[in-house]
Design a protein that fits this description.
With about 180 residues, the chain is α/β, with parallel strands linked by helices. About 40% of the residues lie in helices and about 15% in strands. It has helices spanning about 15-20, 40-50, 65-80, 105-120, 125, 150-165; strands at about 5, 25-30, 55-60, 85-95, 130-135, 170-175.
Amino acid sequence: MKISCTGNPSKHGIAHEVKKRWPDSQFASQSNGFDFKNWTAYSADKFNQMLIDSQIFINLIFVAPGIQEHLLDRVCSFWMEKDIKGHIITIGTTLEWSPNQHETDYVRSKLKLREKSLELNDRTGITGVKSTYVIVGGINDARDQSSDLVSPVEILSACEWVWNNQNRIGLLQIDSCK
């Protein structure tokens, strides 16, 4: 199983933990030349090369509204074209449940992303690509103010359970009990 992931593995968080657990994983972030805001033919080619050998794509970083949704569409389309039976794990936020947050670009974007991920999950039988949306109640990124949030280890353990499960799991929520 080969994993591709958005995010910088040098910064503490989910991408960092992916790199620790699966060292041969590939990453796409600004730090290694991916400018998701200004997509070019070169970017698309580079991104597709990363995906060609992957069976898992973790879509985790919010760069700007609509970008995670664009990546979700792009991965699903590419894998369908190449007949790759992969699994896309997209990371959301519990802020989606807070009505007073719905006016922010971040939350509106995440809501559309969840809708798209669930739509793709419904089409798994047609596409051959599984899609799961994981709502996370904050991530412990090793800063003092995040110490009681969900650890990247716990998030990845749940994600691994999802992609190893033979059934389709469209939606999962993980919150800290602390």
